[in-house]
Amino acid sequence: MQEVILLYNPKAGDTYFRFELDEFIAVFNTAGYDTRIFRSRAKGDMAAYLLKADLSNVAAVFVAGGDGSINEVVNGLMNCKHKVPLGVIPAGTSNDFARSLGFPSEYEKCINLLANMQMEDVDVGCVNGRYFINVCGAGLFTNVSQTVNIDLKNLIGKMAYYLKGAGQLPSFRPFKLRVEANGEVYEDNFILFLVLNSGSAGGFKLATDAALDDGLYDFVGIRQVSLPEMTLLLVRMLKGEHLKDKSVLHLQSNHFLISSENIQDDLRESDVDGESGPLLPLEIDVKPKALSLIVNRQNLIVAE
């Protein structure tokens, strides 16, 4: 009998996923799989576990956690000798990437859909040698997931991110950014930028035409704007009309070079799938269809 591996972060999101372990084991046993479970105790141990594990009889690896946990497991799998499909259970706070795979937030429904083992090959990003599956960015608001209090995040969810982000506004300074993509160079003053796979970050659908398997990532940069202009832009984001705004730079490419001469020291570090990433400058490549993901095809975001 083949096995599946379940890696879970007990501190992710509302921390309730631990009560679903028996349900996961039962569902996959009915589907014909034995289950190995690994409980994360420290940052990096899920990737380390995968690199040491025998995956020769493993049908799939599943991770229950937030975007940071998913990133860790993606990096582990991308560096493993055996190529094993990945399934994602949305057990974090934002769950931007899990939503792009078409899965509901209710654990029982999600687990039963995952057991269908529908698979699609999706693109994986690589920034300065580190893999990422959903988003890489820097600037205003982009590092709030790293700095917000964990207890507060677990208590009030996404609102903790918004409160932390609002606290950055008084001391923030726009920065000059240079972006090279598709043989063109773009330079301007920005307040933030994101390079996206699914198109979603922080609960917002920022790149409306993004697809997980088109061989391209989307660059979305917001130029220097006044506070009233930012308010109007947020309204346009909610309507999905922001990419037409003159303050937004939107590009699609499989390769980006991004640098800044004057970004604040505390924002020079990028955010990669909700975790601390490399310092600017950044070189980002897209690895087309490099990872097999278990998906819910009915609601999947892919190229037509």
Keywords summarizing the entry:
304 residues, alpha+beta, Rossmann fold, Tumour Suppressor Smad4, 2 domains, 11-stranded antiparallel beta sheet, 4-stranded parallel beta sheet, 17 strands, 35% strand, elongated
Give a written overview of the molecule.
This protein has 304 residues and is of the alpha+beta class. It folds into 2 domains: 3-117, Rossmann fold (3-Layer(aba) Sandwich), CATH 3.40.50.10330; 131-287, Tumour Suppressor Smad4. It has 9 helices and 17 strands. The protein has helices at residues 21-30, 45-52, 67-78, 96-100, 107-114, 144-147, 150-156, 159-166, 227-239; strands spanning 3-8, 34-39, 58-65, 86-90, 119-127, 130-132, 135-139, 175-181, 184-196, 200-201, 204-205, 217-223, 248-253, 255-260, 269-272, 275-279, 282-294. Strand 3, helix 3 (67-78) and strand 4 (86-90) form a beta-alpha-beta unit. Helix 2 (45-52) runs parallel beside helix 3. It is elongated, with a radius of gyration of 19 Å. The chain starts with a strand and ends in a 10-residue tail after the last strand. The model is unreliable at 151-168 (pLDDT under 50). Keywords: ATP-binding, Kinase, Lipid biosynthesis, Lipid metabolism, Magnesium, Metal-binding, Nucleotide-binding, Phospholipid biosynthesis, Phospholipid metabolism, Transferase. It comes from Bianquea renquensis. Belongs to the diacylglycerol/lipid kinase family. Its cofactor is Mg(2+).
Poorly predicted regions: 151-168
Please count the helical segments.
9
CATH class categorisation of the largest domain:
Mainly Beta
Which structural category fits the helices and strands?
alpha+beta
Strand elements, count: 17
Order of helix and strand elements from N to C terminus: EHEHEHEHHEEEHHHEEEEEHEEEEE
| Radius of gyration, in angstroms, nearest whole number | 19 Å
CATH topology name of the largest domain: Tumour Suppressor Smad4
Q: On the 0-100 scale, what is the average pLDDT?
A: 86
Largest sheet: 11 strands, antiparallel
- Please tell me the total number of domains: 2
